[in-house]
Amino acid sequence: MAQRGGPGVGQQPGVAQQPGRPGTAGPFLESVSIDDIIQTDVVTAQPDAPLTEIAERLESEDVGAVVLVEDEEPAGLVTDRKIALSIDEFDDPSEATAEEIATDDLVTGTTTLTVFKVLNRMNDDNIRRLPVVDEDGTLEGIVTLDDLLVLLATELEKAASIIQSQSPRL
Asked: What pTM was computed for the model?
């Protein structure tokens, strides 16, 4: 039988525990802002940029998407996948512009969003990249599904390490 008053399994003495089931990370992770994972060095281009230039930028910058901007506000998104899938739509792809294949209904977020709210938005809108804007709509950065997965994997590794060190059978 466990002693009352002492820390429970996985709890540290003197550390207040979140209400809910023991060991759940939800309340903590729900409060984690995207500030720590936002990429502020966003690859951008004008909507009228030639598609060939966008493809070159994707390769040279080693990214999967370029955010199209007008007056410092995101106006669309072009991905490497979208370029690959749309090449046969044009008689001469070298004459095509980024805005011709850009995302029509660009979804954006703000730095006030939490990790889980971003994940939910990405899931709901079936997207992998979320441009982040300030209160005036100016592009501040971008969060990608890859960024979120790295963050979550790091946290899971920490949890696994704790479990492994505390469990004699592992």
From this structure: 0.76
